[in-house]
Amino acid sequence: MVGEYIDFYNQRRIHISVFPVQHLDEVNDKLGCLVVACGNYYSREMTALRQSTNYTGKVITLSNFDLSLPESYENAQVMEDIQAVLELLSDQKSRMTYLLTWISRLANDETIATLFENETRETISDDNVIRYKDYLIKGINDPYIKKEFIADLYRMKYVYPDCGDVVLDVGAYRGDTAIFFADKVGSTGKVFAFEPIKANFDWLVDNIRDNRLDHIIVPVNKGCDGRSGLVKGVTVKSGAPWSFLSDEMGEQNIEVVELDEFVTDQQLEKVSYIKMDVEGFEERVIQGLSETIRSHKPKMVITLYHNTIDLTNLPLMISKLADYDMYVRCNMEGPFAVNLYCKPATKA
To answer: Where in this chain does the record put each Methyltransferase FkbM domain (predicted)?
Structure first.
């Protein structure tokens, strides 16, 4: 049973909600075991434990990255799948980025990923606005989203949105990526921006209107899934972009659409480019997108960092649907910007 929150550092006598926070040394003699459970990596917390406390007892460590690799995924199969993905990747930079991502996860050490640090000198503003060319994108109060925008995650030298492209922006949040795409595809292109969370969708609509991009961007107040219907969603009241779909934990109904069905209903003659960042639902979205991938062979940028198993499952899944040249890049430090870039394979 959890009786209190324990601080490794020196912020004593603060409270989190109704729970008192004590320094670990103050309760050292009461502990038979310490559990260090983290949403991401736990290496930093373990370093703090060693450097800032006198605790020498038993420690159990657990991270979300551990949990997102199923126990049924045997080591031999993991290694076989990693090798299969490496053979799919089209350049050495991709293979090194991919292996380094695995190493950082296996070590539960985010400092390994500092090699990916973006050295762009642009500063991050303190307000809730992203300024891009002549556009103002409002409601962006999360500094990480601003860092992602500066890092230019959704294009690389082989995969990028181009003039006249039809784009599916899956996980549009408040419009930052949709506006970036609209600028690239121009008036002859189209961007369908999917955002299921109403509070974020309202910002998305406002940003489209205020930047006079209604003729290019079509906002869609739906999530994307393997089939159309209703699912439960978990929302973040702070407005951070970490809302996600979960039948187990969701507190509100979210309408979702199968993208193959959407493409058919909209009578889209082409789908040129797909960006996918849906907080761990990427595999299910791809399941509902398989016919579009086979028939349209769009360029794609898909996040690989939400679930550890995505590092193998998603590239292997895509490879079975169509012939692609695949690249892995990470333009930011930390674990949250590793993307799979898919370019329709060049015919020999």
So the answer is: 169-306
**What pTM did the predictor assign?**
0.87
Minimal CA–CA distance to 236: which of 263, 288, 199?
Answer: 199
Q: Are 64 and 41 in contact (CB under 8 A)?
A: no
**Runs of H (alpha helix) within 62-175:** 64-67, 75-88, 92-106, 143-151
Cα 265 to Cα 258: distance, rounded to the nearest angstrom: 11
- 102-152 pLDDT, tens digit each: 999 888 888 888 888 877 777 788 899 999 999 999 999 888 899 899 999
CATH of the domain at 80: 3.40.50.150
- Same domain, yes or no, for 145 and 15? no
Helix (H, G, I), strand (E, B) or coil at 338: strand
Report CA-CA distances (Å) from 329 to 28, 263, 312. Answer: 44, 28, 15
DSSP class of 242: -
Q: 25-50, pLDDT tens digit by residue?
A: 777 777 778 888 877 777 777 887 77
Picking from 193, 162, 194, the residue whose alpha carbon sits closest to that of residue 178 is 193
**Based on the domain organization, do 262 and 333 belong to the same domain?**
yes
CB atoms closer than 10 angstroms to residue 10: 7
What gap in Å lies between CA 130 and CA 133, rounded to an integer? 10
